[in-house]
From TrEMBL:
It comes from Alloyangia mangrovi. It comes from the Bacteria. Residues 26-131 form the Thiol:disulfide interchange protein DsbD N-terminal domain. This is Thiol:disulfide interchange protein DsbD N-terminal domain-containing protein. InterPro entries: DsbDN.
Amino acid sequence: MTPLVSGPAHAEDPVTAELRPGWRLPDGDHMAALHLQLAPGWKTYWRAPGEAGIPPVFDWSNSSNVARVTALWPTPHVFRQSGARSVGYKGELVLPLRIASTGGPVTLEANMMIGVCSDICVPQTLHVTAVLPDSTSVDPMIAAALAEAPFTAREARVSAVRCTVSPAKGGVKLRAEIDMPAIPGPEETVVEAGQPELWASEPKTRRKGNTLISETRLMHMEGKPFALDRSKLRFTVLGESQAVDIQGCG
């Protein structure tokens, strides 16, 4: 079936969006995808966009018979402009979506606010909707995006993650020591606190043998004191063409 498409209507607009309706999985969930096509020279952002990026916001509440939507982000790229780092995609983004239904025909509807940047950054509000088919025919574009997901810690042979927390001005300093083989290209890390009220600065990353060391500062958005839940910390190690997704630390 052809997805219903809405978004910017003119060729000069920086981004267009559609929902690829995908296929039914053996366990009853559905695999679909959000497909963003960006004009030449424009980029958009990953779930953790970096200090220079705009975080994407998705609202699925107008969908029918949908219990949960999980975005399965492909490996992003690191961009640097005027000394600031952002993390995201250029050209296009196929973002796989795993949908758990409550039963009955599923209509997936998204209202989203994303940031897109060229020489300037502008927020874009987009609306897309599609009726999901009762079909098991795999969409190769979505399958290719799923194959670009970061490796899990086990797949990347991460053997240990140790965290040290110490006081810092306005928050805490977090040092993570990740025992793992190097991945190709310069390695960078993204740290997500897993607590929406906390913000993480761009980490300093270096390697000491088989150990990757990442240091960052965590601060409360409103400057309040906070308790850090180490089990919710998430580290993504980004290389030239690979990434590793690591959950929690000791």
